[in-house]
Amino acid sequence: MRTPKTLATSLLTFSAAALLALSAAGAATAAPAPGKAPTDTSGVSSHTVTETGTADYWTPERMRAAIPGDVLADKAMQRSNNSKAALKRPVETGAPSKIEAAAPSNVEAAAPSLLSRDLQTKANASESPVPRIGKVFFTLGGANYVCSGNSISSGNKSTVSTAGHCVNEGPGAFATKFTFVPAYLNGAAPYGQWTAKALYAPTQWSSSGNMQYDTGFAVMSTLNGQYLSDVVGASGLQFNAARGLSYKSFGYPAAAPFNGESLKSCSGTATNDPYNPSYMAQGIPCNMTGGSSGGPWFIGSSSSGYQNSVNSYGYGSNSTTMYGPYWGSVIQSTYTSAAAA
Fold first, then answer.
1. What is the CATH number of the domain that holds 226?
2. What is the mean pLDDT of the chain?
3. What is the mean pLDDT, run by run of 10 residues, along the chain of 341 residues?
4. Cβ-proximal residues to 312 (8 Å cutoff; 6+ apart), any chain
5. DSSP per residue over 298-317, as a string?
6. Are 289 and 8 a contacting pair, CB within 8 Å?
7. Residue 105 falls inside a structural domain
8. Which of 47, 73, 89, 331 is positioned for an S-S bond with 165, CB 3.0–4.6 A?
9. Number of domains forming the structure of the chain
10. 0.70 exceeded by pTM
């Protein structure tokens, strides 16, 4: 039985020095996912989902038994340390840009999440469900996994953000049976289960698992003839923002001491990763565990802010810091491709 790890991705249950020692060790790569072969254009990798039966596959029992996605991030971390060349280049940046949020057709559905509050530094806090934020379920290598995700503003009204390791092994196969359950709470799916029709990741992630780019996007199919953001709303986004901002992050930690059945949050001012500065990541006070991977980071003190990163990784079994990738021009380009699909 796998011992649960205690950070959103819990990527390192050993010291940074020990991790570097793994650079000589290889890691198996799963066979490509079934369906249309992944495409790679302009630094963006994508995969068209062709499998059927996803809506029926994710029963409450399978959801509860899904493995927190930290184990996938752990493997990706080890593989990325086998090839340090890509990490010697700084994250590509461009001019700051924003995409505005989109309200759901039923504005009252999102009202609770629009409340603003003063920022208080917290390692974890219980939250009421937010319509846009939910759990992500998917299959890789024959196993079922769980992460977190968020409905984001897009031209197709159907795009969800999450961690790169929740859509692609980094490098390796793309996920199958990818499903988003917004406002999940104790097994309930108040807005239904939304299945993906396409997955997107930066090529730097899908080809080498470069931790600088641990972000992915999923384009969801319509449900009952409706688009995702028309039902739950969609968060605004910001790219190429200043570093060192204050954030509030959300996720569904599933590894002990949490059970993944309710939404949690963390908040604080971001600081650079002192252990692996080449990742260019920033961290905030947080002890959410596996399952919260891919949960959104919002600038400011509430979920009404611009999303500017996702839960990605942490260090050690008792870490109190969550790290997220810097959203520069590469991740922006990946978002642009997904949002237009």
1. 2.40.10.10
2. 83
3. 38 35 31 39 82 91 94 79 58 76 64 40 83 97 96 98 96 95 96 98 94 97 98 98 98 92 97 94 95 97 97 82 97 97 94
4. 8, 9, 73, 163, 211, 214, 215, 281, 293, 322, 323, 324, 325
5. EESSSTTS-EEEE--B-BST
6. yes
7. no
8. 73
9. 2
10. yes
Q: Tell me: do 150 and 291 sit in the same domain.
A: no
- pLDDT tens across 199-229, in order? 999 999 999 999 999 999 999 999 999 999 9
Q: Rounded distance, CA 238 to CA 205, Å? A: 20
Q: What is the pLDDT of residue 39?
A: 47
Assigned token pair, 59: 């029963």
Q: Which residue in the block uniquely carries the two structure tokens 């796998």?
A: 2
pLDDT of residue 310: 98
What is the model's pLDDT at position 73?
80
Are residue 322 and residue 174 in the same domain, yes or no?
Answer: no
Which amino acid is it at 259? N
Residue type, 279: Y
**C-alpha span between 111 and 207 (Å, rounded):** 40
Q: How far is CA 86 from CA 65, 69, 167, 211, 277, in A?
A: 35, 24, 20, 10, 13
- Would you state the pLDDT for residue 71? 84
Are residues 334 and 313 located together in one domain of the fold? Answer: no
Q: Which residues pair with 41 in a beta bridge?
A: 44
Edge-to-edge order in the sheet of strand 307-310: 97-99, 237-239, 307-310, 296-299, 246-251, 264-269, 122-126
Q: What angle do CA 256, 261, 264 make, to 5 degrees?
A: 75
What is the dihedral sign for C-alpha 329, 204, 91, 42?
negative
Give the Cα separation of 196 and 141 in Å (integer): 18
170 contacts 79 by C-beta, under 8 angstroms: yes
Those residues whose C-beta lies under 8 Å from the C-beta of residue 3, and which sit 6 or more positions away, are none
